[in-house]
Known about the structure:
The complex is a heterodimer of chains A (100) and B (424).
Chain A: E1 9-14, H1 24-28, E2 33-35, E3 41-43, E4 48-49, H2 53-65, E5 71-76
Antiparallel strand pairs in A: 1-4, 1-5, 2-3
Chain B: H1 21-27, H2 37-44, H3 56-64, E1 71-76, H4 85-92, H5 94-108, E2 112-117, H6 122-138, E3 144-148, H7 159-168, E4 183-185, E5 188-194, H8 195-212, E6 223-230, E7 236-241, H9 246-251, E8 261-264, E9 270-273, H10 283-286, E10 297-301, H11 307-320, H12 327-345, H13 347-364, H14 372-386, H15 388-395, H16 401-404
Parallel strand pairs in B: 1-2, 1-5, 2-3, 6-10
Antiparallel strand pairs in B: 4-5, 6-7, 8-9, 8-10
Helix pairs in contact in B: 2-8, 4-6, 5-8, 11-12, 11-14, 12-13, 12-14, 13-14
Amino acid sequence: MGVIRRAGMFILQVNPILCDGFGHCAELAPELVHLDEWGYPIISHDPVPLADIGSYESARYAERGCPRQALHVAKVNAPAPITNVAMPLPSSVSRKRRPL
Amino acid sequence: MIEARTLPRLFAGATNRPLSLEAHEEMFRPAGNVASLLDELDASGLVGRGGAAFPTTRKVQLLRNQRGHKYVVVNGMEGEPAAHKDNRLLSTNPHLVLDGAEMLATMIGASRIAICVARDNPTVVHHVEQAIHERARRNLRGPGIDLHTPPWRYVAGEESALVHWLDDNESLPQYRPDRPHILRIGRGPAMVDNAETCANVGLIGRYGAQWFRALGTHDHPGSVVVSVTGAVTRPNVLEVNLGTPISSLLASAGADPAPQAVLLGGYGGAWLRGDQINTPYCNEALAPLSLSVGAGVAAVLPRQACGIIEAHRVVRWMAHESARQCGPCAFGLPALAEDLLAVVRGGRDGVAAIARLQDRCNVIEGRGACRHPDGVVRFVRSSIDVFAADIDNHLRGAPCAGARSSQRYLTVPALEHEEDLIWE
């Protein structure tokens, strides 16, 4: 019997515009999702390790079971969010396409 | 050429009429020593004047790395009911804003400029139209400029809502899970900049970064346009040096020298206590008080006013202005307004409501597609904190004198029926 080792983390994300508060996610992934008093999901922003297979599977169930398809399981490699975006482009970038 | 340390800069030569193109070029003669726009913008340290104070040079770098048919979107929507700065700027010197937009377009390689003014301000729309015609007659080279007139809504000035309107004629914010997010019109990347930011870029492009940094503080350089409203004898739009004490900027609008509190940053902002009005007006000094310059609003609340009633009026209107896309905003904000009303009425319901307010603020924060609910939460928290003594009186059943009078100080537009709200 092999032990599945998975590196990395995931976050369950909800698109609040699509979400209509059906509440299926709280049934399918109770360890990740709580409902607020209006029935909309409260999901932690902290990444969960993929090695936590139970959580990952329920996140996938919630993603597939959402009637508005508002949920998304996003894999993250680094737990720190991307903050710095300054990427200076070299001034002489050739836009020519390479020959095939 | 304008001297580096003089004010006004943005409003130089302002009269009752907008400056014509000739007068504008006469007033703002290029100094001719600006080598590279990009380097100058980088060295100037300009941060966006729309509220988020995002460094403009970072935005430019981000957009330069994109490919496709790019757009520069000038945001002159003026969502804040207490602010008048974009309107004032566009109706005194629209050419400075358009110059800045053209420079930004050159920097990122954009082929079109879209300038957005709410259609509820027909005078400003007219002035901008005239300015665009004047430039077209001169046959100035450069990107084409289009005027767009979305409906005026509080969230319509939010950048993703504005781009959504340009893209699909709906002033609704979009969901952006990963930041920074490149907003797109069709497939073309769009850079949204506030009208005041564009005007500042227009100055930096003429006179350079060193000139620009002669005013303001190190981390927050330049001048800023502030709308002073509330309990003042002369409600006014002022251009001030960043780092000026707030008390002196209130004094020049004829405000009460000892106000109860000053609302900074707009209706998604927070209150400054009356005893702290000697704080310099810049983000460096305001950040420790968890305040910011925001959209350049300073609304003065006098001693005799009831802060909690004013807070309720603002939150009720902000709840009404929600786009009703996200549940926590559509249901949460009216709940906050109801709780505040219960606090105003006092008694046992009020005591329960105060506890509930804190919980609801924690639940709502950060759960909308845009920052509208976060702004309201910040405003509610700050109101609870600053007017704590007044809230105690209300809960004990002895409301302040301001609650009994019918005089109100903050400008809040009338609530329309939900079905009459125009989003497209």
